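Most newcomers find our protein records easier to grasp once they have seen one. Read left to right, the backbone structure tokens trace the chain's path through space. Once this layout is familiar, the rest of the handout is easier to follow. The record below serves as our worked example for the rest of this section:


***
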Amino acid sequence: MISPYQWLLQSPFILKQELVWFNRSQNFDKIRFYPMTERVYWLAKDPKTKLNNVINHHDVFDTKDWPPEGTKKEHTRGFPVKMCTDLISCFPDARVILDPYLGSGTLAIAALTAGRDFIGIELEPKYCELAEQRISDFLLS
């Protein structure tokens, strides 16, 4: 297993906090303990960056907080838009949201919902197309 800390600590960004989403994933393979969580990392360019905990929560979230959402099996993992909008709301001064793993575009949709700009990075062409379609559908709705 490669820990994300191996590259997070080498990036120019400052790791401020790790959040855990207990998503109750149904990934039942017999080669390891069943992974039932996802991690969310709060990274900042400025060490003075602060959040305003307007959602009044601790660092572990459950499906009651953020119910899982599907992507009609088009992507391996769909984060809930509510997760992203909740987290964005804690940073009222953030104008641009960076998602280094754009995937299906959930964070982009949450950023647009919050009136923010976003930068999404994705290497997989099929996910770029999926995100582009989801964002386009969102903007047209």
